[in-house]
Amino acid sequence: MKTTPASITARLSLIAAAGLLGACSSMGSAPMASSQSGLPDTIKVPAGNHLAWETTGTGEITYECRDKANAPGQTEWVFVGPKAVLTDRAGKAVGSYYGPPATWEALDGSKLTATQLAVAPSGAGNLPYQLVKANPASGSGALVGVTYIQRVALKGGVAPAAECNTGKRGQRETVAYQADYLFWKAL
Asked: CB 3.0 to 4.6 Å from 134: which of 1, 43, 54, 146, for a disulfide?
């Protein structure tokens, strides 16, 4: 068989096509596996959903010293809102989490809010586990079709240890926290 420019071009085209097909097949969105076995029943995601996206949120929670409801003369630290960067398992920034209202926003422009369904204790000094039902996402991207979000693997985030008294009313303090946010979609 004689090698001609046309036969070389044909072979290179076949090699390029094979490489492209291989790359595309590895881009599939196969569901990730996540065990629900170690979590409290109240925050387990209902059957019929699969884990679509795993992120870690690292940031801070803001609290404000305010009058305690129905307790004249008493004050307490009140949750104001979160501010965190969401990263994937490789540590690459993929979005943010902020509020109020609690909002998850992917770098692809998709974003959503959610309604809390349940919380459960996660350990002393840590925010509680949480399960929320996602509202429909805006934009297009990773968050479209998300049905539930779980907050797990928590570190920190509880109200400040500093005293909150009438002299500090209106003062804000931030505390560091970290949590995994697991995004689920219907099968």
From this structure: 146
